[in-house]
């Protein structure tokens, strides 16, 4: 089986990341079939020390920071994240490198007979695309003899397919409203679902949260008898300087004072770095050695593209995968605090299942040009829909049907002291990166029009 053939098999399964109804079977939220699958594979997820990470925003960045530090320490960590920007292989990362195409195909070939048997039985529902990817990650990390596995929750917590691990540490990054149709329509309901990852015997670390969210997490910790650590109570973090390609910051903690640099921009990334640092210190206290030199090297060398990333200086162009009102608000703050410009040219595209109206109201348009577009993803909102939303605010927009056209138009329009901000969806950001950096997209011919699914 080659890589393209393995992708065909992967995408033949039910996939909640695609348009509903495209898969073979109706999705059923149940961990039983995941446990059955992993048991048939020898339970590879139980053989590696684990950090399990949930949250609405920042969980990917925090996971990447933790993995980078552990890699600097020599642990050779596995990192499982979603979605991807350019290729499915990004989701399964070992010691800083994505899984190879051959390894990816070999895993699907090895797992497929077991998966087929479970799906043929059907008594526990049918294995989904994400569940197969999760099993592949666990098996890959075991085969590579990973010293740690850093596992990002796909959606929610309680019934996410990653919630079969027995973690040393559970991490909660910032929780806000997102995926409300599945997780609940209040922050408390969402926090309650995400708190389902807490296990007896682990330590829980949380980023700053709204009081009602913090209460839910604290109660779940009390129910499980687990230690509960709030990063903001452990450390203070102060920005010292920043440029287009990173920021320097100082952290004061009970176990020392540190000066770090990270290429990740934004005040929210300082929050993520603080949470990562506290998590790594917890691992130290659990007997896993992580030195301050490894902290510094890992923070400095972390790679997490598509998040407040500068792709051009002339004109100044940044991309950011903000895709809910909270993260759009953080982007607005970062543009003001980290960049100097006369006018902003927005290139905006959103997924149709998001709160588009709330997101566009987060951005200022007093001295701005707006270009609306759509990604190739089947969930993307049409440019007509976006134009209609902006018309309600009295904002006129330029409509362009492809991200490539929209980015090129913005670059032609921009003056030397303007800033171009491409945002609204990771799918839009991915296509902008592909266009500007000449990255070939990973296309899936089995889907309509060879549409990339990220």
Structural description of this entry:
- With 454 residues, this protein is α/β, with parallel strands linked by helices.
- The chain has two domains: 3-301, Mur-like, catalytic domain (UDP-N-acetylmuramoyl-L-alanine:D-glutamate ligase, 3-Layer(aba) Sandwich), CATH 3.40.1190; 309-450, Mur ligase, C-terminal domain (Protein-Tyrosine Phosphatase, Chain A, Alpha-Beta Complex).
- It is built from 16 helices and 17 strands.
- The chain has helices at residues 3-10, 32-40, 59-73, 101-121, 129-143, 180-183, 187-194, 211-224, 231-234, 267-285, 292-301, 325-338, 356-360, 383-391, 403-413, 426-437, and strands at 50-54, 78-80, 92-94, 97-98, 149-152, 169-172, 203-206, 227-230, 236-243, 246-253, 256-262, 309-313, 316-320, 343-348, 368-372, 398-399, 418-423.
- Strands 4-3-2-5-1-6-7-8 form an eight-stranded mixed beta sheet, sandwiched between helices. A six-stranded mixed beta sheet has the order 12-13-17-14-15-16.
- Strand 9 (236-243) and strand 10 (246-253) form a beta hairpin.
- The longest helix has 21 residues, at 101-121.
- It starts with a helix and ends in a 17-residue tail after the last helix.
- The relative contact order is 0.12.
């Amino acid at each position: 089986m080659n890589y393209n053939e393995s992708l065909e098999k992967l995408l033949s399964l039910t996939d909640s990341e695609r348009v509903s109804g495209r898969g073979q079977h109706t999705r059923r939220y149940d961990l039983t079939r995941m446990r059955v699958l992993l048991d048939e594979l020898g339970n590879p997820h139980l053989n590696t020390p684990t950090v399990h990470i949930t949250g609405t925003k920042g969980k990917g960045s925090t996971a990447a920071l933790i993995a980078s530090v552990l890699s600097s320490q020599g642990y050779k960590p596995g990192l499982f994240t979603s979605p991807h920007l350019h290729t499915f292989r990004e989701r399964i990362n070992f010691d800083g490198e994505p899984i190879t195409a051959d390894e990816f195909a070999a895993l699907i070939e090895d797992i497929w007979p077991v998966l087929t048997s479970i799906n043929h039985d059907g008594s526990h529902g049918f294995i989904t695309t994400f569940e197969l990817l999760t099993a592949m990650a666990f098996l890959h990390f075991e085969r590579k003899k990973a010293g740690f596995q850093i596992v990002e929750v796909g959606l929610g917590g309680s019934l996410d397919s990653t919630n079969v691990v027995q973690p040393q540490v559970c991490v909660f990054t910032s929780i806000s409203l997102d995926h409300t149709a599945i997780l609940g329509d209040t922050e408390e309901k969402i926090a309650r679902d995400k708190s389902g990852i807490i296990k007896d015997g682990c330590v829980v670390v949380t980023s700053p949260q709204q009081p009602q969210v913090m209460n839910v997490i604290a109660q779940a910790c009390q129910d499980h008898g687990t230690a509960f650590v709030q990063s903001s109570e452990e450390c203070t973090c102060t920005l010292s300087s920043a440029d287009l390609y990173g920021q320097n910051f100082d952290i004061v903690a009970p176990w020392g004072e540190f000066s770090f640099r990270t290429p990740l921009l934004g005040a929210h990334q300082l929050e993520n770095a603080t949470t990562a640092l506290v998590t790594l210190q917890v691992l130290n206290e659990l007997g896993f050695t992580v030195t301050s030199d490894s902290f510094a090297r890992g923070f400095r060398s972390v790679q997490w593209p598509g998040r407040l990333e500068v792709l051009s200086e002339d004109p100044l162009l940044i991309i950011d995968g903000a895709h809910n009102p909270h993260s759009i608000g953080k982007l607005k703050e970062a543009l003001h605090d980290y960049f100097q410009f006369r006018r902003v040219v927005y290139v905006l595209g959103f997924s149709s299942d998001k709160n588009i109206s709330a997101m566009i109201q987060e951005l200022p348009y007093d001295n701005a040009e707006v270009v609306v577009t759509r990604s190739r993803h089947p969930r993307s909102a049409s440019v007509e829909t976006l134009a209609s939303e902006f018309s309600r605010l009295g904002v006129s927009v330029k409509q362009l049907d492809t991200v490539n056209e929209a980015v090129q138009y913005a670059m032609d329009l921009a003056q030397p002291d303007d800033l171009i901000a491409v945002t609204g969806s990771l799918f839009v950001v991915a296509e902008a990166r592909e266009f500007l950096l000449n990255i070939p997209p990973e296309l899936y011919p089995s889907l309509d029009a060879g549409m990339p699914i990220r």
